Each structure stands twice: as structure tokens, then as C-alpha cells.
Hints:
This protein is an alpha+beta fold. The chain has helices at 2-33, 195-207, 230-235; strands at residues 37-42, 57-62, 116-121, 137-145, 158-172, 188-193, 209-215, 228-229, 280-285, 288-293. It has 3 helices and 10 strands. The model has no long low-confidence stretch (mean pLDDT 79).
Amino acid sequence: MKNTRSVVMLVVAILAGLAAVLLAARWIHEKGQTGGDKVAIATTDIQFGARITPEMIKMVTWPAGNEPAGIFKDPKVLDGRVAKTSITRGEAILEGKLAPLGTKGGLSAVVAEGKRAITVRVNDVIGVAGFALPGNFVDIMVNTMEDGAKGNNDKDRSISKFVLEHILVLAVAQEAGRDETKPKVVNAVTLEVTPEQAERLDLARSVGSLSLVLRNQIDQVALQTVGATKESLLTGFPTGSGAPAPEVIPASVQQPAKAVMRAPRPRSAPKMEAQAPRNCVEIIRGASKSIECF
């Protein structure tokens, strides 16, 4: 009898606990729905430059008081808008991530105001082995001849110099997606530049060969270089630094012959005939020498 009563009490306690959990979950759900507004979120990944269609969005309830700035509560106003940044699935669609009204889709929609897009030809070496991807920043270096060079064969007057810094890569070939990190070897790279930078880049590719130099995404430090020449490469001094030239030792000049006075040498007299002592002088002329006595 006692065992039966214990089992009944245990079953009642379990049922009461389940009922409490269900009631609490329902209350929390209703509380979250209370006071919330319907906002538009993305139902799929939206690439930058893409036009938004009704199939790409859905309306969900957002807790009141926690709405981010620039949300959309009417899905109709999003029809035809163009994304200027990538929007991931489930992310709220905000005004700051869209191009201005009336903008058509494509690469031109993501070019910043006042900037221009220009394409340069690259290969697997110039394009940093395919690591210059959309969204990366690069510096641009040109190799050309200094003023006064006689021709392309005058390698002593060649110079390599950075001409543009911190340039945004908009697209590689015909792809502008920024979500991939796998390198792609392509034959053209599209860059975002100012009109003045576009002029310098067009001139640089006409007077020499270009190279892209990949830089850190957050590196904003301006470069302070004077360029590299054959002279600076071999001497280790920067171009035009005023480094002392190596000392040139002139060829030795032959000195005229000089007479060298030496002490007289004693001469042994012949055994058969005695001679009076004499004073002698050794005279050196170049490589020859002689002795004169008096």
C-alpha cells in the first residue's frame, strides 16, 4: 500500500513539473511577442551589388526597444534595392547596407561616391599569386626608366617606386564576391581609385610594368620611400642619400732616381801590391747602381 502511494505521488509530481515547464515556455514566448515589430531579414546570402527580390526577405518579430537603426518594416520598399555590402542569411536588412535609391545592380553600385573603378592587367606574379581578392587592399609599384635614360637597354637607369597606396580591390576578373579566401589566378584586377589616382595609374602602366603589393587590411601607414635603383641596390644606400662614393686609389707615379749616399766600404789591398785608401760612393739610378771612387 505504501509503495502504491509513493508511485502515485511521484507521477503527480512529474506531471506538475511538466505542466509548469510548458506554462513557463508559453509565457516567455508570448512575452517576447508582446510589443515587438515585424522587421525584414534575409532568407539567403545576398552578395554585394545584387538586387533584392521579395524571395530574398521575410518578416520576423523583433523585440521592442532592441531594433537596430535603419530596419525595414515594409518588405515592399526593399523590392529592387541593391546591396552595397554582403548580407548573410538571417541578418536584418539595414539601410546602411544598401545603395541609394535608383541605383542599378552591378559593380557600379558598390563604387564609393567620388571614386572610380579601373581595371589593370595582371598575371600570376603581378597579382600576388592570386591572393589579391575582392575586399583586400594593395599598393601599386611601377618599374620604369629614370629621366635621361638612353633606351630600354640602359638598365643602370631603371627604378622601382610605389606610386599608389591602400587601393581597394573591387573585383578579380568578373567576380566581385568577398566571401571566398581561396586564391584565384586571373588576368585582370579592378581597383577603386580617385580620379587623380586613375590618371597616375594609367600613366604608370604606359611607362613601365606594374606590380601589386598586398598589404594588411588595417594598415593605414603612408609609405616614405624614394624608390630603388641599381646604385642603391648594390651600395646599400638609398637613392640620392648623398652616401660617400668609394675611394679611388690612383696608380702610383714612378719617382725619379735619387742618389743614395752610403758609407765607404773597406777594400782589401792585393797581397802583392799595397794601395792607398780611396773614398767610394754608390749611386743608384732606377734599377741600376754603380760605385765611383776618388
